[in-house]
Amino acid sequence: MHFSVITLFPEMVESVVNGGVVGRASKRGLMNMTCINPRDYAEDVHRTVDDRPYGGGPGMVMRPDCLLRAIRDERNKFGDCKVIYMTPQGRPLQQSMLEGLAKVDNVILLCGRYEGIDERVITLEVDEEWSVGDYVLSGGELAAMIVIDGTTRLLPEVLGHTESAVQDSFSDGILDHPHYTRPEKIEDLEVPEVLLSGNHKLIEQWRRQQALGRTQLRRPALLQEKELSGQDKQLLDDFMKEIKTSEVKS
Ligand code: ADE
Fold first, then answer.
1. Measured from the CB, is residue 35 less than 6 Å from ligand 1?
2. Alpha carbons 209 and 229: distance in angstroms, whole number
3. Whose CA is nearest to atom 2 of ligand 1?
4. Taking the complete model, does pTM exceed 0.90, yes or no?
């Protein structure tokens, strides 16, 4: 999979391949990323990439000409590309969007700065607009890095068996269960007994119940979108009853 990132701050985005899972995937040739600086497509002596907004107002807008040239050059190099503009006005990012993107061979991520980019670039060349959440970053770079990281770890062969993405939070549309490692006791807190039982069926059931319970407590809307099995409903019911009883006791 290839990512082309159009950014005024290539050195910032390049750090995403410097280490961790993405770094390893890039070294193994499972993905690669190139950054394109729109400044390299500016034609004036000052290499200007922004200009004042028509209609007045504060801030500057990224000029369409350099961006269009940069995007079209990438399209010519890579053929069929999906172009995504990172913006707080975009569709809120979800795991399913990353899963879809992991099936695409060539992606162009467009990072805005200042007040944004000229709307005509979006009309002419952008396929989708994505947001990483309802807050405003100073540019699309961190958002693009989130997309690169979240997508790369879903590519075939990137994660080893022990890191498998199958058990991630959200892989099943719900949150993950809690995790424990040694020691068995720390500052009065003990590992739940069932995890020490060696009974894999019971452990699986406990984890499923914890995952459902946490989702109900922290992100109830996620469960409303799901059709739970009879067994899941029972696990969740028992979890909520348990919570209520412990609330009454304390
Ligand atoms: N650029 C600035 N803020 C952003 C956000 N929340 N998501 C995507 N791109 C952005």
1. no
2. 12
3. 137
4. yes
Contacts of 126 (CB under 8 A, 6+ apart): 83, 84, 85, 110
Span from the CA of 128 to the centroid of ligand 1 (angstroms): 13
- The answer to whether the beta carbons of residues 41 and 110 sit under 8 Å apart is no
Q: Which of 21, 20, 22 is nearest to 5 (CA)?
A: 22
What's the gap in Å between 150 CA and the centre of ligand 1?
16
Q: Considering only CA atoms, which of 163, 164, 195, 167 is closest in space to residue 182?
A: 195
Tell how far the Cα of 144 is from the centroid of ligand 1, in angstroms: 9
Catalytic residues: 88, 115, 153, 168
The DSSP code sequence of 73-132 is HHHHHHSS-EEEEEEEEEEEP-HHHHHHHTT-SEEEEEE--TT-B-HHHHHHH-SEEEES
What are the distances in angstroms from CA 197 to CA 59, 60, 206?
61, 62, 12
Residue 165 predicted with pLDDT over 90 = no
Q: 249 or 187, which is more confident? A: 187
CA atoms within 13 A on the CB side of 240: 12
Confidence of residue 171 (pLDDT cuts 50, 70, 90): confident
Cα separation, 92 vs 30, whole angstroms: 27
Q: Evaluate: CB of 140 within 6 angstroms of ligand 1.
A: yes
CA atoms within a 13 Å half-sphere pointing along the CA-CB vector of 123 = 4
